[in-house]
Design brief:
Helix 3 packs parallel to helix 5 and helix 9 packs across helix 10. The chain has 317 residues and is an alpha/beta fold. It has a 7-stranded mixed sheet with strand order 3-2-4-5-7-6-12, sandwiched between helices. Strand 13, helix 10 and strand 14 form a beta-alpha-beta unit.
Length: 317
């Protein structure tokens, strides 16, 4: 079992803020738009350094997407940010028409995603955003796992020419991805080699998958852990290679089963190499108000749940 050094605890939204600022320093055409949540989405540092490149749209998300598309068509790299519930679900029509269909160079930033938003409750805890975004032609979908990877993903999104959705969260989580680890859109990362089961995780659940692998190792089970930070385009080659090696798969995500990473993996396996697969995620439910950790436990998104799913998948070989 490869050990990852935890260098602290930071929220992934701060990784986005740091990445946006760095992208702005590298490219004068990077602009940012926000819907009255500049501080919450961590766009404030960019706004302070580049006030002439920051557009505060107010509580008008549809207008924000339209303005972002217009700026992109004029040659800008436009980042449009809000809570994920508002930057995807509230403005899906505008994203579909002005961004995806028009293939404009807009980067949609979704903060406070998933159940770990916590006390704000079901109306703000979007658990469907990855599915909404991945179904759109031309849209790249990123879901990084910690501060360092979110920063790198944001810079990569700025350098990519085309629509991108990047998802991140509010709670402080372990920082374990090395700062210098390369980030490549569409390329999964094998964080731990194993031969008995493949744990394929995204976002906050990558860390939980690593903890599950440690638990399983104590029982003599060798789990391979893949960090699938890009939901679309999916790294089919890496997924099929790992699945063929271990013979069974567990998908791990802070998202609905429907439309999520697990659905994409299952479709890939059915078409190429059917095998036992289990899912760790949200089973067709809305969230509720509560502390992030309590909700992770209640909805079965912890390392112990992943380990149980892994043993079930192995038993079905």
């Amino acid at each position: 079992m490869k050990e990852y050094k935890v260098t602290g605890n930071k929220d992934t939204r701060s990784g986005f803020g740091a990445g946006l600022l760095e992208a702005g320093r590298r490219n004068k055409d990077v602009v940012a738009l926000c819907a009255d949540l500049t501080g919450s989405v961590k766009m404030d540092s960019f706004a302070q350094e580049f006030p002439e490149r920051m557009v505060q749209c107010g509580i008008a998300e549809a207008d924000m997407i339209g303005i972002a598309a217009g700026l992109a068509l004029s040659g800008k790299v436009a980042f449009a940010g809000s809570f994920a519930a508002f930057s995807t679900g509230r403005v899906y029509d505008q994203i579909r028409q002005a961004v995806a269909y028009s293939n404009t160079n807009v980067k949609i930033a979704g903060s406070h995603a998933g159940i770990t938003l916590g006390e704000d409750g079901a109306t703000h805890q979007i658990l469907e955003d990855l599915g909404l975004m991945k179904m759109l032609p031309n849209m790249v979908v990123l879901n990084p796992c910690d501060y360092n990877q979110t920063k790198a993903a944001t810079i990569a999104a700025a350098e990519y020419n085309g629509p991108v959705y990047i998802r991140f969260g509010r709670p402080k989580v372990p920082v374990f991805i090395p700062e210098d680890m390369p980030f490549e859109i569409g390329k999964a990362i094998v964080l731990n080699e194993g031969s008995d089961v493949s744990l394929m995780a995204t976002g906050h659940l990558v860390w939980e998958a690593l903890q599950a692998a440690e638990m399983l190792e104590k029982e003599g089970i060798k789990a391979e852990v893949l960090d699938i930070h890009t939901i679309k385009p999916l790294d089919s080659e890496a997924i099929l290679r790992s699945a063929k090696k271990t013979g069974c798969v567990v998908s791990c995500e802070e998202h609905q089963y429907n439309g999520g990473l697990g659905e994409s993996i299952a479709q890939l396996l059915v078409r190429n190499n059917p095998m036992p697969m289990e899912f760790v995620g949200i089973d067709d439910k809305f969230g509720e108000s509560g502390k992030p950790e309590e909700l992770m436990v209640k909805y079965g998104l912890k390392a112990v749940n992943i380990a149980e799913a892994a043993k079930k998948a192995i038993s079905r070989k």
